[in-house]
Design a protein that fits this description.
oxidoreductase; 75% helix; Cyt_c_oxidase_su3-like_sf; mainly alpha; 6 helices; cell membrane; Four Helix Bundle (Hemerythrin (Met), subunit A)
Length: 209
Amino acid sequence: MSATTLTADSQEVHFYELDEHPHPEGHSTMLGFWIYLMSDCLIFAILFACYAVLGGNYAAGPGPKDLFDLKLIAVNTAMLLFSSITYGFAMLQMQMGKVRGTQIWLGVTGLFGLAFLGIELYEFHHLIEIGAGPQRSAFLSAFFTLVGTHGLHVTFGIIWLVTLIVQLGKHGLIPANQRRVACLSMFWHFLDVIWIGVFTFVYLMGMLR
């Protein structure tokens, strides 16, 4: 279907296409998204490298043992890992052609993501409140940058989730929406892998220093 306008001679003029451009089996979309994920890997690799260099510079201030609550961080990690499981259920529902089921499990995934963000924001607020903000030392600057960047990605992922739920309700499981759900699945699991690295490298190893 094309949007049209009429000239004085009543001739139909096509000036833009409303239909989606063809995506042969979605290969170009998936390839492009893999390339994006690789670029995101480079960003996090740089942030991990910066933390590795700066993570021991406390400027006579508090270190990981003084600041981190491993029990709280373990709960936070569980929230994100559970969200990966529920996203897997959403993918199964999509493969069975169940729009409502897909929406429900995407919604549950979003709730786990919100719980993760809530705990992370609580941790940041607590650290800043006790004077351990990002300006206190190089260690805290690197910590807030790495963990905050991951949290920002989760925030964008939740916005994407909400958008997909709305699109599924409006258009159903059309091929374009299936590709979008699959792309977000890769993004969401990617964030889980990055967080496991953060939990291990920043929190666990930090407590062992």
